[in-house]
Write a structure and sequence with these properties.
Elements: H1 10-15, E1 22-26, H2 33-46, E2 54-58, H3 62-70, H4 72-79, E3 87-92, H5 100-110, E4 114-120, H6 123-131, E5 138-142, H7 148-155, H8 157-176, H9 188-201, H10 205-209, H11 213-235, H12 241-253, E6 257-258, H13 261-267, H14 272-284, E7 288-291, E8 307-310, H15 313-319, H16 332-348, E9 353-358, E10 364-371, E11 374-381, H17 392-401, E12 405-410, E13 415-419, E14 422-428
Parallel strand pairs: 1-4, 1-5, 2-3, 3-4, 11-12, 12-14
Antiparallel strand pairs: 6-8, 7-8, 9-10, 10-11, 13-14
Length: 432
């Protein structure tokens, strides 16, 4: 299998492949979960696991589910005849299995020589309904569409290597405060060109693989039609389909904006409780991310409404039917902000909390990262900058909380300045 489309998460799967715990791989449909499982299968074969000891089952197949649920032990036993050998059972789209968590617990305990690897497109179905049965028996992994780092490595190996070095330095600075050298960047224009393509069409694997723009749009239409219009509606038994679609459309238009539940309900001709359920469904199926507010001063800071982001910019652009080049788009700043959030989730999800900050007087900072005892504000300014410039809102947060460091993500600038004792680094957005 072509390793140019390898995923970062594969390293973790390889690391723990010999452990007994179940692997549960979550993420949106068409993000590459099946391909990831096949990559893991290929790795096992390279490590001299016999192919007859690796079983791949598609739980989207009615006959497979019927036979499996009728007698799970007998079904699995038919593929694993030798109790003295190690087997690997891959079960794709496991969320379609009724009582899947309960069944998997029984199989895990009954077959000590089998490692189960399951995947699913809904956090609700795969996590909430299996977790209570699988405590101490499962490792969960989330696979999103390609991050920009994975995208650039697939597009251009040389630029990918440069990106990886810069990205590591940026992440080390944000998370750990490690020194960040502001050296001359001769490859920035080339990397920005790819970054702008990624902003327009996103990171779904099939979109990345094609170079034709119309084909990219057609693939995104297919993802929307099959995943949002069909799978999510059917899986989670949504009855008011038109209202659900309207809600998706309004969220796409308001991408990176502060949610007003009452206004969203009114615009969608719905009601508060239904809108809350739709938002929960869309977050659980990895279409959107609801970003909570950061607050400590209860009297002056916003402490209720989240901001809503589409996790894939290409899917969001399809919903609003806008693939115009960035220089002609008024929403390019919000698109960039969304990609920063996706980058933070992909890169920092195991180590940090990500929130936004907004006061009742409307001072706002795009992202607040909490890492250990550190609080790091991040502001997104997707524009050409020649010298450091600090917004009033960013300055307000620093004055209030006095963090050790802060970050301003720009289109092109590497620079630094200080506000009091707080060090502020300016860096190109594409390296996060």
């Amino acid at each position: 299998m072509d390793d140019i489309y390898a995923r970062n998460i594969l390293k973790k799967l390889k690391k723990w492949a010999n452990r007994k715990e179940i692997f549960a791989i979550k993420g949106p449909r068409q993000a590459g979960k099946t391909t990831l499982m096949l990559m893991l299968k290929e790795y096992l074969i390279q490590k001299r696991v016999s192919e007859k000891n690796i079983v791949f089952l598609n739980c989207d197949d009615f006959e497979v589910i019927e036979s499996f649920t009728k007698d799970p032990k007998k079904f699995i036993g038919s593929y694993t005849p030798n109790n003295n050998e190690r087997y690997y059972i891959f079960m794709d789209e496991y969320q379609y299995v009724p009582n899947g968590g309960k069944i998997l617990k029984i199989l895990y305990d009954f077959f000590p020589n089998i490692k189960f690897i399951i995947s699913g497109s809904s956090s609700l179905e795969l996590t909430d309904k299996t977790a209570k049965y699988l405590v101490g028996r499962v490792f969960y992994f989330t696979l999103f569409p390609f991050s920009f780092g994975e995208f650039i490595n697939a597009k251009n190996r040389m630029l990918g290597k440069i990106y990886n070095e810069k990205n590591k330095a940026v992440v080390d600075y944000i998370l750990k405060g490690k020194n960040l050298d502001l050296e001359k960047d001769i490859f920035l224009k080339d990397i920005l060109k790819l970054f702008e393509e990624y902003m327009l069409f996103g990171g779904y694997p099939e979109v990345i693989k094609t170079h034709d723009l119309e084909t990219k749009k057609t693939i995104l239409k297919n993802i929307y039609d099959t995943y949002i219009n069909k799978d999510i509606i059917e899986l989670l038994k949504i009855t008011d389909v038109m209202t659900f679609r309207k809600t998706v459309g309004f969220l796409a238009a308001q991408h990176a904006g502060l949610l007003n539940f009452e206004s969203l309900a009114s615009d969608s001709k719905s009601y508060y409780r239904e809108i809350k359920r739709f938002l929960s469904v869309l977050e659980e199926t990895y279409v959107i991310k609801l970003l909570p507010p950061f607050y400590k001063n209860l009297s002056t800071e916003l402490k209720k409404n989240p901001k809503a982001y589409f996790l894939d910019s290409g899917l969001r652009n399809y919903v609003i039917k806008n693939f115009n080049v960035l220089e002609f788009r008024e929403d390019r700043g919000r698109l960039a902000e969304g990609l920063v959030l996706s980058g933070l989730i992909n890169t920092l999800q195991d180590e940090t909390g990500v929130k936004y900050w907004r006061t009742l007087s409307k001072a706002e900072v795009d992202f607040i990262i909490t890492s250990g005892n550190d609080t790091v504000p991040i502001e997104v300014k997707f524009s050409e900058m020649k010298k450091p410039s600090i917004s009033r809102s960013f300055r307000s947060f620093i004055t209030a909380y006095k963090p050790n460091r802060g970050v301003v993500l720009t289109k092109n600038l590497w620079a630094e300045t200080k506000i009091g004792e707080t060090e502020i680094k300016f860096m190109p957005i594409c390296y996060l």
